[in-house]
């Protein structure tokens, strides 16, 4: 298990076939997933498939994706998004089977929210940990926050702050490079944390 700050160094050494990103800090989790996607693209993973687990999700889709070959014989990135954090019994079994036999020429990225200790101790999560690299998006300790902000400013990272009056809430998200929607404004890291 590594934290988000260790991820860049890890990715320079080579890619694992499986990454699981989870944690309560949404911004850090999004950045970690973006770093993994960028590294995958840079290493020839040109095809991308995204599976999002919702209440009626058919877990056989994960098995089929694992068994299918790329359309063009290229390497692919398979994303499994579990926004609720709990796959249920059928999902837990499917994840354990998938992690036991990862597909060739495929980098799998599993994204999850914050998980409690019991969930992290579950068999399906342990299977993911054993088969790949787990990235914990934990809060930046208060004493390290100034260095974290400075590091992001030096790296030229942009942030988006949602307008608190908008229906989408006030979550901070990284700028994806696309044009901002009317309820978003770019903010410097200092403004993001109320320092300006």
Describe the structure.
With 196 residues, the protein is α/β, with parallel strands linked by helices. Helix content is 38%, strand content 22%. Helix 3 (60-67) links the parallel strand 3 and strand 4 (75-81). The radius of gyration is 18 Å and the shape is globular. Mean pLDDT is 81; it is low at 159-196.
Task: Describe this protein with a few key phrases.
single chain, 196 residues
Question: Quick summary of this structure?
Answer:
With 196 residues, the chain is α/β, with parallel strands linked by helices. 38% of the residues lie in helices and 22% in strands.
Question: What's the arrangement of secondary structure elements?
Answer:
Layout: E1 2-3, H1 4-13, E2 18-22, H2 26-42, E3 45-52, H3 60-67, E4 75-81, H4 88-100, E5 106-111, H5 117-120, H6 123-131, E6 133-136, H7 145-154, E7 159-162, E8 172-174, E9 184-187, H8 189-192
Helix pairs in contact: 1-2, 3-4, 4-6
- Low-pLDDT stretches: 159-196
Strand content: 15-25%
Q: What is the gyration radius calculated from CA atoms?
A: 18 Å
The tally of beta strands, per DSSP, is 9
Principal-axes geometry comes out as globular
Mean pLDDT: 81
Output the strand order for the largest sheet: 1-6-2-5-4-3
Q: How much helix is in the residues?
A: 25-40%
Continuous helix count: 8
Task: Tell me the major beta sheet.
Answer: 6 strands, parallel
Helix-strand makeup class:
alpha/beta
Compressed to H and E, one letter per element, the order equals EHEHEHEHEHHEHEEEH
Intertermini distance? 35 Å
């Amino acid at each position: 298990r590594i934290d988000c700050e260790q991820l860049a160094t890890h990715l320079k050494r080579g890619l694992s076939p499986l990454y699981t990103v989870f944690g309560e800090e949404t911004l850090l989790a999004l950045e970690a997933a973006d770093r993994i996607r960028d590294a995958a693209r840079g290493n020839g993973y040109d095809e991308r498939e995204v599976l999002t687990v919702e209440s009626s999700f058919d877990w056989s889709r994960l098995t089929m994706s694992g068994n299918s070959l790329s359309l063009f014989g290229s390497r692919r990135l398979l994303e499994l998004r579990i926004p609720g954090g709990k796959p249920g019994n059928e999902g837990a079994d499917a994840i354990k089977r998938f992690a036991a036999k990862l597909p060739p020429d495929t980098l799998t990225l599993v994204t999850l929210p914050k998980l409690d200790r019991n969930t992290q101790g579950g068999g399906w999560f342990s299977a993911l940990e054993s088969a790949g690299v787990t990235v914990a998006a934990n809060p930046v300790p208060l004493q390290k926050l100034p260095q974290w902000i400075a590091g992001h400013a030096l790296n030229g990272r942009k942030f988006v702050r949602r307008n608190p009056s908008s229906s989408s809430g006030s979550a901070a998200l990284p700028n994806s490079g696309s044009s901002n929607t009317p309820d978003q404004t770019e903010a410097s890291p200092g403004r993001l944390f109320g320092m300006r």
